[in-house]
Amino acid sequence: MGWWETEDHEVVGDSVLDIAQNMLAEISAEYLSELSRPPTLRELVLCLEIAFDVSNYADEPLFAEGKTHKVTRITAKLAKKPKTQPLKPGDLFVFASPENQFFVGRLTPQSGIIEFCDHVFASVPSKEELTQFSFFRLGSAVSDEFLRDRKWRIFANWPYNLESFEFQHYRMGSHATCGFEIEEDGFVEAGTLLRPIEPRDRNLPLYSLVSPEVAERLVIRKVIKGIPDSPIY
Prior knowledge:
The chain contains five helices and 14 strands. By secondary structure, it is of the alpha+beta class. It has two domains: 13-67, no CATH class; 91-225, no CATH class. It has a five-stranded antiparallel sheet with strand order 6-5-4-3-8, covered by helices on one side. Strands 9-10-13 form a three-stranded antiparallel sheet, with no helix packed on it. Strands 1-2 form a two-stranded antiparallel ribbon.
């Protein structure tokens, strides 16, 4: 499974996160089975504190600092959960192939337009690494469904310079997009302002929206096999 470094330089991985999530789920299930309710957050944290305290007497410490230090208290804070994951222009995200290869995408300021890195990674890259590679767009807009339900994991934000960003116009039926409006979420929407198609619009791409599953296949096909998708600019 993949491992990556956080902005604070700690290293975590998919496999250990799965183990931690399963452990928390088992504790919660035990409360439900025995007490007919889930644990409170403080009860859940208290279980971890006691487990750490018991581990102080083990021959091998559970964590790097355990040879000289012990855990006395774990702090966890509550915050209101957003209904969906808030997205911002410049958000960097990853998805993995069945072969556990990592591919990176970047949300542009234009709603529906995602740019993908033309390189495949063995682990989640840093922003500094990404500056060494180019990004490309697919021939279609891409649904953000996998970002909002966290199937595509956001790991950093790399802001765009709006002055140099190249927005894309489309043909939509017998009309063409002709302007941009900033939505409440901070993204720019091109499909709200339309005008009848003119001869100069013949080279504009026809608007289409693909699912995240299709986008993944197109990106893997281009990056790994070098099969191009129709560019939109």
